[in-house]
């Protein structure tokens, strides 16, 4: 009885913080489910991916890869590079996710950009169990993403309006994330390095194989220019 | 790709993702500090990656033929303007996407 109270109190406290994610994930999840089914995948495919991968940017980037020839090394490399930022979320959350017992597995499994942002910046209100609060944020966000995907994937079979251009949701999402990052940073070395390396590698290596050279260029340039970038007070 | 190859690719996507999420918790225990270069990358890498992802989305746009990438650049302009104005992720994404769909379906 006491435990049930603790769990439901944490859910009530966590839900309001996840409302923005609910709207965003529902829309993007539906877009993803529709995009996958109109691309020719069966409905279970996007639902499974949202369930086990749970990473919007990678999932959208992987649509084209899943439509191309089987390329396991590139798929894995892109997964690592697109998701590499989670390494740093992890480093940030080591302290916060401490002593959460069995919940820790789900907290880390479901650590998307949005869940990380909420759990990193929000303290559980007074009288609310911290572990359960963070777990509910994590599970609700994950549920929104999978639910949105399922709606899009199942409705995608019945959609009769012209969906041409719907995949632009992916581009728009990255543009918005890019703007958020740009506004947050005082210096823009890294964004410029990323843009120059990507465009240069796209021109040199072509659309199908520029991603991995781009990633290596970015790592090399960030390493080479570390001193001036740090001196410029990047990200502070 | 066959269904088995798609399932294997999905498993790799999940494994790669989970590796990046779980690794710090496995490598750095609660008392040790991560190396400085890792912390530095944690600060600077996201901006570069987001630039790269925007370019990745536009990789099949041909500037010198077809619609010259105009629908893409107009829709990105609308997304950016909406976001700088209202700063609401959903509105910016929805507005840009609807604008793009109108542009490619009715105008270009």
What does this structure look like?
The complex is a heterodimer of chains A (236) and B (108). Chain A is mostly helical. Chain A folds into two domains: 2-162, no CATH class; 185-236, no CATH class. Chain A is built from twelve helices and no strands. Chain A has helices at residues 2-38, 44-52, 56-67, 72-83, 85-93, 103-109, 113-121, 130-156, 168-184, 189-205, 211-224, 226-231. The radius of gyration of chain A is 20 Å and the shape is globular. The mean pLDDT of chain A is 87. Chain B contains four helices and no strands. Chain B has helices at 3-27, 36-57, 70-86, 89-107. Helix content of chain B is 77%, strand content 0%. Chain B folds into two domains: 1-30; 33-107, no CATH class. Chain B is mostly helical.
| Assembly category | heterodimer
Q: What's the tally of helices of chain A?
A: 12
The rough form of chain B would be described as extended
Global mean pLDDT of chain B: 87
Question: Which residue ranges of chain B are poorly predicted, with pLDDT under 50 across at least 5 consecutive positions?
Answer: none
Rg of chain A, rounded, reads 20 Å
What's the helical proportion of residues of chain A? over 70%
> How many separate domains make up the residues of chain A?
2
Major sheet attributes of chain B = none
Low-pLDDT sequence parts of chain A: none
Largest sheet of chain A: none
**Beta strands of chain A, count:** 0
Q: Could you tell me the radius of gyration of chain B in angstroms?
A: 20 Å
Count of extended strands of chain B:
0
């Amino acid at each position: 009885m006491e435990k049930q109270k603790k769990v439901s109190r944490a859910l009530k406290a966590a839900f309001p913080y996840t409302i923005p994610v609910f709207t965003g994930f529902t829309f993007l999840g539906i877009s993803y489910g529709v995009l996958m089914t109109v691309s020719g995948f069966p409905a279970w495919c996007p639902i499974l991916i949202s369930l086990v991968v749970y990473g919007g940017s990678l999932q959208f980037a992987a649509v084209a890869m899943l439509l191309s020839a089987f390329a396991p090394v590139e798929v894995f490399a892109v997964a690592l590079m697109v998701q590499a930022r989670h390494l740093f979320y992890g480093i940030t959350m080591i302290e916060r996710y401490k002593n959460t017992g069995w919940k820790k597995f789900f907290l880390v499994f479901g650590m998307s950009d949005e869940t990380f942002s909420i759990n990193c910046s929000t303290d559980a209100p007074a009288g609310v169990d911290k572990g359960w609060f963070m777990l509910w944020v994590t599970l609700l966000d994950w549920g929104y993403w999978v639910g949105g995907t399922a709606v899009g994937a199942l409705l995608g079979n019945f959609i009769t309006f012209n969906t041409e251009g719907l995949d632009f949701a992916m581009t728009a999402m990255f543009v918005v994330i890019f703007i958020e990052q740009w506004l947050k940073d005082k210096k823009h070395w890294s964004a410029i390095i990323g843009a120059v390396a990507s465009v240069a590698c796209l021109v040199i290596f072509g659309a199908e194989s520029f991603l991995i050279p781009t990633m290596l260029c970015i790592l090399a340039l960030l390493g080479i220019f570390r001193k001036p970038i740090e001196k410029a007070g990047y990200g502070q | 790709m066959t269904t088995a190859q798609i399932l294997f690719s999905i498993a790799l996507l999940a494994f790669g993702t989970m590796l990046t999420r779980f690794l710090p918790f496995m490598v750095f225990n609660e008392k040790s500090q991560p190396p400085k270069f890792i912390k530095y990358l944690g600060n600077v890498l996201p901006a570069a990656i987001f630039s790269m992802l925007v370019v990745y989305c536009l990789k099949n746009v041909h500037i010198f033929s077809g619609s010259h990438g105009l629908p893409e650049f107009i829709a990105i302009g609308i997304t950016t303007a909406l976001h700088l104005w209202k700063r609401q992720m959903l509105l910016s994404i929805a507005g840009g996407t609807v604008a793009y769909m109108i542009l490619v379906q009715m105008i270009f």
